[in-house]
Prior knowledge:
5 helices, two-stranded antiparallel sheet, rod-shaped
Amino acid sequence: GRNTTKVSRYGGQGMYKVGIGVLLLALVGCTTVRPGEVAVRRSFGKLAETHRGPGLVMHSPVGVRFVRVPVRTNNLEVSLSLPSQEGLNVGAVVSILYHVEAPKVPELLEGSGVGFEQALVMPVFRSAAADVTAGFLAKDMHSGRRVEIEERILELQDAKRDLAEAALGTEGGFVKSLSATELRSLFEGAL
């Protein structure tokens, strides 16, 4: 006999290269960020200060996750019981349309976490809606004055959001930076 052993055309390195390739694939994680979303990297519980836009994101699979947040317009439908001027509670189903600004997503997640809708959007809206509807008759909520009520809720919601930002953004008191007119308009519907 003749020796009929086949020799790989890559020499002994063929299996070595395949092994390295498989090892590299096992060490790389991948996340897909869809259109209308941004993602923030969370590495061992610490959030990154920047966000990633739509596309494929490669990362280490160990201790790294991406928190995805929609930045498109979201519709949050809520059932509320709103007070009227007569002291009656009027049931209302309300759609809150909102969006998150992409550059602010890391700060939002750091401050409020993934449940920011329940921590930020809902309380501000619920408070503004109750403050405004308490100044109107129950029949006004189902009549032509509904548009006026909606506009006042939006105005008060914006004022409360600005007030909250002022309160959270300064070390000193925030009331001294508001004028008497601003305070009156802010609490007008609640009195």
